[in-house]
Amino acid sequence: VLKDTLEKRGALGQIKARIRAEVFNALDDQSVPRPPLSHENLLINELIREYLEYNKYKYTASVLTSESGQPEVPLDRQFLAKELNIVEDTNAKSVPLLYGIISHFLHGGKEESTQHTLPKVSLLNYPKQNLGKPPAERNQK
Length: 141
Hints:
Elements: H1 2-9, H2 11-27, H3 39-54, H4 58-68, H5 77-83, H6 97-106, H7 128-131
Helix pairs in contact: 2-4, 3-4
């Protein structure tokens, strides 16, 4: 009965996630230095972290930050949008940038979408054929 009650409240999932995060932290060897983050990976990780925190996946976000070596303090959203050449409308700021990026590509890059809950974004400055290549082979900006 206790397990069912905790599941219904959503607490059991949070407890399990917290245990996983604590186990990871206990096993994580802090003496081994992390490789430096590339600029591209820093931006990708930040998009993912913003999405995770928005959806209340705080333990997952904590593990991502710890495991990736991402800075503890999140990047400023305006800085992130500027780095990715994302143009947001006023409603866009209420959801993670990743939602706008996905919305943009789902709607074929059209400025207007039928769903008003997702933001409009401009094309990223990466040609589509460039995105399928490994990071080392992509055009450096």
